[in-house]
Amino acid sequence: MERECSNCGKPFMPKPGPGRPRRRCEECRPPEKRRADAPPLSPPAPTNVHRLPAPSAESVARAGPVGATLERLTNAGRESTPEGEIALTLAAALAEGGHTASGLAALAKELRATLAAALEGAPVEPDLVDELKERRARRRGA
Ligand SMILES: [Zn+2]
Fold this sequence. Notes:
Elements: E1 3-4, E2 11-12, H1 57-62, H2 64-76, H3 82-96, H4 101-118, H5 126-141
Antiparallel strand pairs: 1-2
The protein binds zinc ion.
């Protein structure tokens, strides 16, 4: 059935198919395609986000989970074992942040397990043993 354009009054044939029947002719209301003479879509203006300077690799390695993990591995002489490497990688991922709570928990759990495996059988730091002995002695004396 022919319809009349609500804009220019020209009769036109609405296309059959789903959707609302068009009320204007194709000249007044071009289909949803972009016209060739239309100005190009401008990219979104860059938002001026203030970015914090990225921490240097050195400071990341010294502080946080990576530093603590590396220290324990180094003290046990296990920093270059496969388990040690995995533990360090996990620690780095942990330090990177941006995890969901469950992701963080999974990472921490995995790091603990890997670190335990890496340190398995390693001699305990003598100063730690001394400290424990001292504490025990203090407790007995009290
Ligand atoms: Zn029209």
